[in-house]
Amino acid sequence: MASRRRGEVDHAELMGLELLARIARLPHVQVVLRKLGRGSRAVSGRLVRAPRKGSVVVIEFADGMHEYVTTAVKRVLRLAHQDVFYIETANSRYRLEVQAKDNVLEDASSG
């Protein structure tokens, strides 16, 4: 396995990051964010800011008045051929699942 130099991103990782960026640009992408570990709870809502290295993940709750914000993202991994992402932040790990992506894409293209 070839080692990467600092700052280099492999093709699969780039595809996952590009997909998250495209998903985040859509107006109403519903996601579920689960903190990994004991006693964790799931947070469901609209993805406001996609996870990118050095940035935070922002999820807006259904009431539109409250948000869930993580600490700075260190790493984003994607399960192959699925809309499931594992996110490592400065002090936690999360699983992010895209829920209503197909419906959102149909609505965006028809309207």
Describe the fold and architecture.
There is one protein chain. This protein is an alpha+beta fold. The protein has one domain: PH-domain like (Roll). The chain has a 7-stranded antiparallel beta sheet, covered by helices on one side. The longest helix is centred in the first third of the chain and has 15 residues. The C terminus is likely disordered.
Structural class: alpha+beta
Calculate Rg over CA atoms.
14 Å
Domain module tally: 1
* CATH topology label: PH-domain like
What is the CATH C-level name? Answer: Mainly Beta
* End-to-end gap: 46 Å
What are its keywords?
globular, 7-stranded antiparallel sheet, 23% helix, disordered C terminus, PH-domain like, 111 residues, 34% strand
Q: Helix and strand layout, with pairings?
A:
Blueprint: H1 11-25, E1 30-35, E2 42-49, E3 58-60, E4 67-69, E5 73-78, E6 84-89, E7 93-98, H2 101-110
Care to give the gist of this entry?
With 111 residues, this protein is an alpha+beta fold. The chain contains two helices and seven strands, in the order H-E-E-E-E-E-E-E-H. The N and C termini lie far apart (46 Å).
